[in-house]
Specification:
The structure holds two protein chains of two kinds. Chain A is mostly beta strands. Chain A contains no helices and nine strands. The two termini of chain A are 18 Å apart. Chain B has six domains: 169 residues, FAD/NAD(P)-binding domain; 114 residues, FAD/NAD(P)-binding domain, CATH 3.50.50; 73 residues, Enolase-like, domain 1 (2-Layer Sandwich); 63 residues, Arc Repressor Mutant, subunit A (Orthogonal Bundle), CATH 1.10.10.1100; 57 residues, no CATH class; 156 residues, Sulfite Reductase Hemoprotein, domain 1 (2-Layer Sandwich), CATH 3.30.413. The two termini of chain B are 39 Å apart. The chains are: A mainly beta, B alpha/beta.
Chain lengths: 106, 804
């Protein structure tokens, strides 16, 4: 059986500013896209795992982490894990780069 | 939303709520009723307050902001008088009715007051809350002689505190030995000798039968007929679960409110936790078991799987009047036990371990409790002691950390918060922690009673090895990314001429290359303060509200609050606001507390267009800057007004708007002492008098309610501007980032500020630096409208549809 993999072009790599969150919507999912200082691009669901929710795209970016702007939780962009002493998990999306185009693979 | 109501606002209950907020999958509507007029504070530390080691602010665990941030409705000074378990609603003493889906009773306990004649006289108190402490402190100012009834932990701490307050203190105890439930006779006689040396007088084996006096207490009479004089009587014989409301509402109560292993009472959806609850016939009074109960209850309420609560074996780590004690398990020998003892009367050390069949069944340590965690683990885990050395002999100099090194990773270090050595070591290693402060923040260790702090410090020293710096470890650093304090960072910026946030973090060797949400905004502020108009603001080092120039709401929408100088507007502006609110379907239009209009629930991508159509400056309702200048109508229209308050308010707001300050700054201007603009609770308040203005500073109408202090009285509006500029600039240059003026003035002293501002040259220099700083600001909404780059980076929302 064939498995369908969707690869969606979402941005030009060179257009994305370092350390700020871009919001985009794929179907019904809100996604926040970050280009960190190392040049790596990460995509996570734009929703804080805090029980009260909130967006993540406006959070402060430090290394490979983003701080939830509303509740100040520290979240890894790599694997979506909330750092201690808080706990939780954000959904992450695979990002691929080809030429100058950033793709989200789902 | 599920409605959760809690009766009681103390340590066990609020910890339960914290656990619920942590694990709950969905938001809850939480209401808390607290009988005391305070947020949750650390009751364990009351004795420190009494002993003058700390003040009330420092023992608050959850400040009012915490309740606000978590959307918890808190009613303080209000108690619940009835629970209707049929219709699931509670009624307060003020007649307020609140419905619940789940109800937690966390009413704690009261001091047990002896039912003897005279117990209701003036000058008789328990020792349980802030109110009791205040009463004792006040009494010490007018009276000399105190009697404490009860030679247990609480009684001895109260006695020590009263000695510190300068009173003569007798301690009355019913039993032949002090603290007989925790100590054996040898330890208790050592303790008694030590305390006598400190000035306490003991009346042992005395049963109080009557409190003497007319309106106020004058003395006590004992069963043997003897009497003693007293101006103040503190009863510290024990606690009594506060079960009245449960009992009256038909919930099953024995000594405490009876709960099962999931903290459920006899009524459905009603739970009890803490000192008011009785579990398997035990009422616990120590914080660790209560926190354990809280964790289980939180899981229960959130419908999560949890192990049942099966009771706690408690080890008690105590410090009484400077003496370290530890006690756990059985205290007294019987025919089947064997003791292992060390007794050094000369140095005041005593350790005894009680064993039965090669297992430890009881521990008493006096004067040195280093072995406590290890022995306690052996007791609870039932480790066989054959061939094990029970007491480590004195450590040699280099072996100072030997104890820490040999400590297994699963050993509990902070009993209050259940933090193990392993968790602390891991946090230190993975997060690069170097100070005690950072470890506490990260792991919670040491956040409650604080007695494990020396142990945490040893672990820190051991884990860091050569990199451990003792003085650095104790001070308050800017945040976890550095060991430098605020003053050191500011000094380094000036000395090394650092000019950007990145450079500061780089040159000063931040252990976290790109900083965090605590240091980045602070460094950005300090740079702007130091370099004035030469500094280019680092927008991405600001937190969301300042970065977006709008307040984020919890659903990700924003609010828009345009400037209305001095709270004065026009019909044309009002029309414009109304039309825009309609056009953008703004869900809420509200008058704010600062005399202006807020538009709430605006989508991020609508912000620039709305600002453009409004064509009004940003009100900075989101910033660490001048918020508003509230004014009364004043001499222009009011028959009482002696000064033109609106004109001064507008001038102030126009001059200082947009200025970065350590925290928000609010001003108020009133035209007469009737003070309709409430200038007395503003960071700076101006009150018009005949022929001049009074300037009040450091008022606060928020979390730390504080009346302003009179800084000075001046004659003209020019002098007002000059003094205000100098004062604000001095605050900007010397306060910590996020320190309100009220806290700042209390820290540096009003007289000091007055002295500085008394010098005309100093004022002039301060004003020059202020004016230089003010030059750099441009209107941020207009800037965003003009710049495609800003619009794209901060306010655009890209929507992608698959297959298009």
């Amino acid at each position: 059986m064939l498995q369908t993999i969707t690869r969606i072009p979402v941005a030009n790599y060179s257009n994305i500013k370092f350390r700020s969150g871009y919001t985009l919507k794929i179907d019904d999912t809100d996604i926040a896209l970050f280009k960190v200082t190392s040049g790596e691009v990460y995509a996570i669901e734009n929703r804080s795992p805090h029980p009260k929710g909130g967006v993540l795209s406006e959070g402060l970016v430090s290394g490979e982490y983003v701080y939830c702007p509303v509740y100040d939780w520290k979240i890894s962009l790599k694997d979506g894990k909330v750092q201690a002493p808080d706990e939780g998990q954000v959904r992450t999306f695979k990002v691929e780069l080809e030429d100058d185009i950033v793709f989200i693979v789902s | 939303m599920k409605k959760l109501v809690m009766i009681g606002n103390g340590m066990a209950g609020v910890r339960t709520i914290e656990e619920i907020l942590k694990v709950s999958a969905e938001p809850l509507e939480i209401t808390i009723f607290g009988q005391e007029p305070y947020p949750n504070y650390n009751r364990i530390k009351l004795s420190n307050i009494l002993q003058g080691d700390t003040n009330f602010e420092d023992i608050i665990i959850n400040p009012l902001d915490w309740y606000k941030e978590n959307n918890i409705q808190l009613f303080t000074g209000e108690s619940i008088v009835n629970i209707d378990v049929e219709t699931k609603r509670v009624t307060s003493n003020l007649g307020r009715e609140v419905e619940y889906d789940d109800l937690i009773i966390a009413t704690g306990s009261n001091s047990f007051i002896l039912p003897i004649p005279g117990a209701d006289k003036k000058g008789v108190t328990g020792f349980r809350d802030i109110h009791d402490c205040e009463m004792m402190i006040k009494s010490a100012q007018h009276y000399k002689k105190a009697v404490v009834i009860g030679g247990g932990l609480l009684g001895l701490e109260a006695a020590r505190g009263l000695l510190n307050l300068g009173m003569t203190v007798d301690v009355v105890h019913l039993m032949p030995h002090l603290m007989e439930r925790q100590l054996d006779p040898i330890a208790s006689s050592l303790l008694k000798a030590e305390l006598e040396g400190q000035g306490m007088n003991f009346l042992m084996e005395k049963e109080t039968v009557e409190i003497l006096g007319d309106e106020r207490v004058t003395g006590l009479r004992f069963k043997d007929g003897s009497q003693v004089e007293a101006d103040l009587v503190v009863m510290a014989i024990g606690i009594k679960s506060n079960t009245e409301v449960a009992k009256n509402s038909g919930i099953y109560v024995n000594r405490g409110i009876v709960v099962n292993d999931f903290m459920e009472t006899s009524a459905p959806h009603v739970y009890a936790v803490g000192e008011c609850a009785e579990h398997r016939e035990i009422v616990y009074g120590l914080v660790a078991p209560l926190y354990e109960q809280g964790k289980i209850l939180a899981s229960r309420i959130c419908d999560l799987e949890t192990n049942p609560y099966e009771g706690s074996v408690t080890g008690t780590q105590l410090k009484v009047a400077g003496v370290d004690l530890f006690s756990a398990g059985e205290i007294f020998e019987d025919g089947t036990t064997k003791s292992i003892m060390i007794y050094n009367e000369y140095e005041g050390l005593y350790k005894r371990v009680l064993t039965r069949n090669n297992l430890i069944v009881g521990i008493v340590l006096y004067g040195d409790t280093k072995d406590s965690t290890r022995l306690y683990r052996m007791l609870t885990k039932k480790e066989d002691i054959s061939g094990v050395s029970i007491f480590h002999t004195e450590c040699s100099a280099e072996g100072g950390n030997g104890d820490v090194a040999s400590m297994p990773n699963d050993e509990l270090v902070c009993g209050c918060n259940g933090v193990t050595k392993g968790a602390i070591v891991e946090a230190i290693k993975t997060q690069g922690l170097t100070t005690l402060d950072q470890v506490s923040h990260c792991t919670n260790a040491g956040r409650s009673c604080g007695r494990c702090k020396p142990m945490v410090s040893s672990i820190l020293a051991h884990t860091l090895g050569d990199q451990f710096d003792e003085t650095a470890a104790q001070k308050t650093s800017l945040c976890g990314c550095t060991t430098l304090s605020r003053d050191e960072v500011v000094a380094e910026i000036k000395e090394k001429g650092l000019t950007s946030v990145k450079e500061v973090m780089n040159v000063l060797e931040w252990n976290n290359e790109e900083g965090c949400t605590k240091c980045r905004p602070a460094i950005n502020y300090y740079l702007g303060m130091i370099h004035m108009d030469e500094y280019k603001d680092d927008r991405d080092s600001r937190l969301v509200n300042e970065k977006m120039h709008a307040n984020i709401q919890k659903d990700g929408t924003y609010s828009v609050v345009p400037r209305m100088y001095g709270g004065v507007t026009t019909a044309a502006d009002l029309k414009k606001i109304a039309e825009i609110a309609e056009k953008y379907e703004v869900p809420l239009v509200k008058l704010t507390g600062g005399q202006r209009i807020g538009l709430f629930g605006v989508k991020k991508e609508d912000l620039p267009a709305m600002w453009e159509e409004l064509d009004m400056p940003s009100g900075y309702a989101y910033g660490k800057t001048l918020r508003t200048v509230k004014t009364c109508v004043g001499a222009q229209f009011c028959r009482y007004g002696t000064q033109d308050s609106m004109a001064l308010g507008i001038e102030l707001e126009k001059k200082f708007e947009r200025l970065d300050t350590p925290h928000k700054v609010k001003m108020g201007v009133s035209a007469c002492p009737r003070n309709c603009s409430e200038a007395g609770i503003k960071d700076i308040g101006f009150v018009g008098i005949d022929g001049g203005w009074e300037i009040y500073v450091a008022g606060n109408g928020g979390v730390d309610l504080r009346a302003g202090d009179l800084l000075c009285t001046v004659k003209t509006q020019d002098e007002v501007m000059e003094m205000t500029g100098a004062y604000l600039q001095y605050y900007r240059e010397t306060a910590n980032y996020l320190e309100r003026t009220s806290k700042w003035v209390e820290r540096v002293g009003l007289d000091h500020v007055k002295d500085v501002l008394a010098n005309e040259e100093t004022r002039k220099a301060l004003n020059e630096r202020m004016d230089k700083t003010l030059k750099k600001y441009i209107e941020p909404w207009n800037e965003a409208i003009q710049s495609e780059e800003i619009k794209d980076k901060y306010y655009a929302n890209h929507t992608i549809k698959v297959g298009e």
